[in-house]
Design goal:
The complex is a heterodimer of chains A (731) and B (200).
Chain A: H1 2-12, H2 24-47, H3 52-65, H4 71-95, E1 107-111, E2 124-128, H5 131-136, H6 158-166, H7 172-187, H8 208-212, E3 232-233, E4 239-243, H9 249-260, H10 271-276, E5 294-301, E6 304-315, E7 327-334, H11 345-357, E8 364-370, E9 375-382, H12 386-394, H13 407-417, E10 424-431, H14 442-454, E11 458-464, H15 471-480, E12 485-488, H16 491-500, H17 502-506, E13 508-519, E14 524-530, E15 550-553, E16 557-566, E17 594-603, E18 611-618, H18 631-646, H19 656-664, H20 674-688, H21 718-721
Parallel strand pairs in A: 7-8, 7-10, 10-11, 11-12
Antiparallel strand pairs in A: 1-2, 3-14, 4-13, 5-6, 6-16, 8-9, 13-15, 13-17, 14-16, 17-18
Helix pairs in contact in A: 2-4, 3-4, 11-12, 11-16, 14-15, 18-19, 19-20
Chain B: H1 5-15, H2 32-40, H3 44-66, H4 69-86, H5 96-118, H6 120-128, H7 141-151, H8 155-166, H9 171-178, H10 182-199
Helix pairs in contact in B: 2-3, 3-4, 3-5, 4-5, 8-9, 8-10, 9-10
Classes of the chains: A alpha+beta (731), B mainly alpha (200).
């Protein structure tokens, strides 16, 4: 044992060896070489130009110093190769036109020789997209991909494609195989999109499913998980209760995703927020005493001819312009390093500039930054001193990587100091997802915001950018702060949220608005609430004023849709019970004339007790055909159908073309162009997520019924309906 | 990452105080992590500062490891050049100096392997090399002998012994640099001792 210790001592002698100080000349030489390599690296990373000459000159220097010793070149050679390959590979991976951000590199299969149609392609060669080739031809020949199971797809080449599409029906199965790889390529956001042709869609039917379940998810953003509200049986559960939702963040997020060419994850698609994004022509309430009145309409469901939609619309009271409410706004702005992107801090500055433009001398603005440059950026300043406010905004810069000070407490402190009674007191939090505002625990943060809300200072949240967006947290904070969460993806959206809808964003006219609908089992057998999954309330919560719910701002419009199945329509998804006694279900005459009964509770902004509005949903409200429904109704139905299809809902699948047609007929005047923009989103979604149900031919008479969704490809009346040659996008 | 960086700064210097030789370099004013982030973002000056700050560390490490000043200089330059391209692969999970230590060790090893491939020419050259690195006067011949013996050990045993006895690290710290578990480090040390007893 002692031997062991001795040995440790001996080993300790290793420590006694002190290397000499480095030679200054060699040190400088190494540093110069490093800088040279760094410059080459940077140049390469940005331009991809050759650096070989510069590096070799460096080698020459090294050789001169160590004439006999060629060891050195080994190491430098390694470095040179690393310098060349690393950035080259990195750049090709990230920046070629065909490689979408966040999507794995594309594998291309080139076929050596066309194999017989419908047969297995045996001579396929798998090649990774070659960097240079990809750069030279951004929309390179990416027609074919291997499918998930690793089976080689039948070749699709110039002439082959035509044959494939024009082939007669019995060959439908192999046709599907042909179509599938094509679809997959199209599903990749990128240059291939314009080549999409509606004609291929039916071909893909048996194969669309695997793609549907795997939407591209490059976002890194987080969303609250929810499952779609199920169909309920009126006899078991006649009452449906939910809180209204005035947010529109989901719509902007979906729009951004589609415009960038990827399908948002299902949880990002909250249908009620999609529907609520648009303005509808509901009659407004006339005075602040009853801040809104519900508008109800009933019309046939576009995706199911046996059911009906019940649309409940609310429009908040709009105070006359003369009532200039003083506002006390505190901007709580995220200036963490991650905000340093064009669609974040710079957009935020311009967005808040818009808001500042509308303020008057009654109003005060303060700015607090958190993360990065933390602290009070602007002491409370009158809205008339616009230059001062704007220059304070302008001087904000994103930077710093660590958590800031107690930003949120500072913001509320300022808001409370300058609180205006009877006016708008609001903290507006703008972030890309970093909620390190000083309170770490999300629950504590919610409680804090809730307490402040009860003290009269509300909170709104504006989300920016993607990749880090904490959508779930945004929603939760805004809901607890009696505010709304909006997602700002563009200057146009900033204009909508902060200017066009500024009243709704800032000026709350009613809070804790809850809706409860009781359906009449004599008339309605089943119902389903579309959307509002994240806002569901318990039946007993409706009358409990302590339960928080959504808030309505001035002029805000809220729409809710139910799909109902009338008794005896045959569209019930649940079979009748064998042992059910119908004795109790003999309604009186009055009840048989109503679908149900709508109850709505709200509180005035400063009140703690709720008021009740009740409206029967009479059968007389129903219209027989979709055409007889108002344009707004049809528009809402189209948006709901769009949302359901985009998220892959199990209910009501319509073909994209049919959704488009429905929306097209309901656009109305659309002065701000929001509805036109939505039409573009339908087109984009149709490309990214092709139909499961074949579209009804647009130009033909409306006789062709939509075929059922059946797995057998033979059932689809495919080839005749397809305009052949341009169906498969082959260059 | 950003939120953790403050911890990282503390860790990097608390863990290995001996890496920062106060006689040579003042304690850095800007945290390494900040410089790294800037350098990855393309900031030339930050990169220069970073390399300058750590050159001595790289050189000394290389010097101990290969035992010859000229080799150490080559390795150090090699590492500096490499840093330009591999810096972005530093993920912040370990301290920068730990990472740099590993990079330097790998460079030493690469050089030695290349030399052994190249055969005896270089060995012959090495024997007559005038820049054989000499220990301080007070160091006994025993220390030099021990170093020579240790350098002949298999790579991992040598690394483990040097990290623990020459650098005075704990087994856990050595594990971080060698990229293996603490227990593995202990085992390498154990094996190394067995071998060394035979040699000495």
């Amino acid at each position: 044992m002692s031997n062991h210790d001795d040995f440790d001592d001996k080993l300790a002698a290793l420590k006694g060896l002190n290397p000499p100080a480095p030679n200054e000349a060699r040190r400088n030489q190494a540093l110069d070489a490093a800088m040279l390599a760094f410059d080459a690296e940077q140049k390469h990373a940005t331009q991809g130009s050759s650096i070989i000459s510069r590096l070799s000159s460096m080698f020459a220097n090294a050789r001169r110093n160590f004439v006999m010793d060629n060891r050195l070149t080994y190491g430098l050679g390694t470095a040179a190769v690393a310098l060349l390959l690393l950035p080259l590979g990195y750049q090709l991976y990230t920046s070629t036109a065909i490689t979408p951000v966040g999507v794995p590199p594309v594998t291309v299969t080139t076929t050596a020789e066309p194999a017989p149609l419908g047969g297995e392609a045996e001579q396929t060669v798998e090649v990774l997209v070659n960097g240079t080739a990809a750069m030279e031809t951004p929309t390179a020949d990416l027609e074919i991909r291997l499918d998930d199971r690793g089976e080689a797809s039948p070749p699709v080449e110039e002439g082959e494609a035509d044959m494939a599409v024009m082939a007669p029906a019995p060959e439908a199965a192999p046709l599907g195989e042909v179509a599938k790889p094509v679809m997959r390529t199209l599903a990749q956001p990128g240059g291939a999109q314009p080549q999409m042709s509606a004609g291929v869609q039916p071909l893909s039917e048996p194969f669309a499913e695997p793609m549907m379940v795997a939407p591209t998810d490059p976002s890194g953003d987080t969303f609250a998980k929810f499952t779609e509200s199920p169909v309920k049986i009126v006899k078991n559960e006649p009452v449906s209760t939910f809180s209204i939702d005035v947010d529109t963040a989901a719509y902007s997020y979906v729009r951004r995703a589609l415009n960038e060419g990827w399908v948002p994850e299902p949880d990002a698609v909250r249908i009620e927020e999609l529907v609520n994004y648009f303005s509808y022509d509901y009659p407004a309430a006339t005075d602040a005493a009853t801040p809104f009145k519900p508008t109800v309409s009933v019309y046939p469901t576009p995706w199911n001819d046996k059911t009906q939609l019940v649309q409940i619309g609310i429009k908040g009271y709009v105070p006359p312009v003369t009532e200039d409410k003083a506002s006390n706004l505190v901007f709580l702005l995220d200036t963490s390093g991650s905000m340093d992107q064009p669609d974040k801090l710079p957009l935020l500055k311009r967005a808040f500039g818009l808001l500042v433009d509308q303020l008057g001398e009654n109003d005060t603005v303060s700015i607090v930054a958190y993360a990065g440059s933390a602290g009070v950026v602007l002491e409370p300043t009158s809205g008339s001193e616009k230059t001062k406010i704007l220059s304070a905004l302008d001087n904000l810069s994103a930077g710093g990587s660590t958590a800031g000070a107690a930003g949120i407490e500072l913001a509320y402190q300022l808001a409370e100091q300058h609180k205006v009674t009877g006016g708008v007191n609001r903290v507006i939090l703008a972030t890309d997802g970093d909620f390190n505002v000083g309170i770490d625990d999300p629950e504590d943060l919610k409680t804090y915001i809730k307490n402040k809300r009860d003290g009269g200072v509300f909170l709104s949240v504006l989300g920016f950018g993607s990749g880090n967006l904490g959508d779930d947290t945004m929603q939760a904070l805004a809901q607890n702060g009696n505010g709304n969460a909006s997602y700002i993806d563009s200057f146009k959206e900033a204009q909508k949220v902060l200017v066009a809808d500024a009243g709704g964003t800032l000026d709350t006219i009613a809070k804790d608005v809850k809706i409860q609908v009781e359906f009449n089992p004599a008339v309605v057998s089943e119902y389903r609430l579309i959307g509002y999954e994240t806002r569901a309330l318990n039946r007993e919560d409706f009358n409990n004023d302590k339960v928080d719910a959504g808030d309505v701002g001035a002029g805000t419009m809220v729409t809710a849709l139910y799909e109902i199945t009338p008794v005896g329509s045959g569209a019930e998804l649940n079979d009748p019970l064998r042992y059910e006694t119908d004795a109790a279900a003999t309604p009186d005459a009055a009840a048989a004339t109503e679908f149900g009964f709508l109850k709505l509770r709200y509180k005035e902004p400063d009140s703690d007790t709720s008021k009740l509005i009740e409206v029967p949903i009479g059968k007389d409200l129903a219209v027989d055909s979709l055409e007889a429904a108002s344009a707004d109704d049809r528009w809402a139905a189209a948006v709901a159908a769009f949302g359901q299809k985009l998220k892959g809902s199990v209910y009501g699948d319509m073909a994209w073309a049919d959704i488009r047609k429905l929306a097209q007929g309901a656009r109305g005047e659309d002065e701000a162009g929001y509805r036109a923009e939505f039409m573009g989103m339908i087109d984009m979604a149709a490309v990214l997520r092709p139909n499961v149900v074949p579209a009804t031919p647009i130009d033909e008479t409306e006789v062709a019924p939509e075929p059922e969704v059946v797995p057998e490809p033979e059932m689809t009346p495919v080839p005749e309906a397809v305009p052949a040659p341009e169906a498969v996008p082959v260059n | 990452m950003p939120r953790e960086s403050s911890n990282l700064v503390q860790r990097s210097f608390a863990l290995m105080p001996q890496f920062i030789d106060t006689k040579v370099a003042e304690p850095p004013r800007v945290a390494d992590e900040a410089l790294i982030a800037k350098a990855i973002g393309g900031d030339r000056r930050a990169f220069g500062q970073l390399v300058e700050r750590h050159y001595d560390f790289i050189f000394r490490t290389a010097c101990k490891w290969c035992g010859k000043v000229s080799d150490a200089e080559d390795v150090a330059q090699d590492v500096c050049v490499k840093l330009a391209s591999i810096l972005r692969s530093f993920d912040g999970r370990s301290a920068f100096t730990s990472w740099l230590y590993r990079v330097t060790l790998n460079a030493v090893r690469d050089m030695q392997r290349a030399r052994s491939r190249r055969g005896r020419n270089v060995d012959r050259y090495a024997e007559v090399a005038p820049d054989e690195y000499l220990p301080d006067q007070e160091d006994s011949a025993a220390a030099k002998e021990m170093w020579d013996a240790v350098r002949r050990l298999p790579d991992q045993q040598r690394d483990a012994v040097l990290l623990i006895y020459a650098e005075g690290m704990s087994h856990a710290e050595a594990g971080v640099i060698m990229g293996c578990k603490e227990a593995t480090v202990s085992w390498h040390v154990h094996e190394a001792k067995k071998t060394l007893r035979g040699l000495l």
